[in-house]
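Students often ask what a holo structure prediction actually looks like on paper. The answer is less mysterious than it sounds. You provide the chain, you provide the ligand, and the output is a string of discrete structure tokens encoding the 3D arrangement of the protein together with iron/sulfur cluster.
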Amino acid sequence: MPEKIKIVVNEDRCYLCGGCAGVCPALAIKVSSTKWEFFQEKCISCRICINACPVGALTAKPLGVSE
Ligand code: SF4
Ligand code: SF4
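The corresponding structure tokens follow.
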């Protein structure tokens, strides 16, 4: 099992293109015309979304350590 992570968006960079939501195999990201949303309980920590974002708006934070 990979380390459990939380995905965090940099809202200054994200332009809501939906690319990350489209590649997420677990449907853990939802993008609408007004907001980016992450569902921790669905995320399988694969990191595909981070690499898919064209503007580098996503980062991973380890879960279980202080936030
Ligand atoms: S790490 Fe994987 S499962 Fe989690 S939101 Fe990104 S693409 Fe989806
Ligand atoms: S791929 Fe990047 S820019 Fe596009 S919606 Fe996701 S976080 Fe935002």
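The first helix runs from residue 19 to 23.
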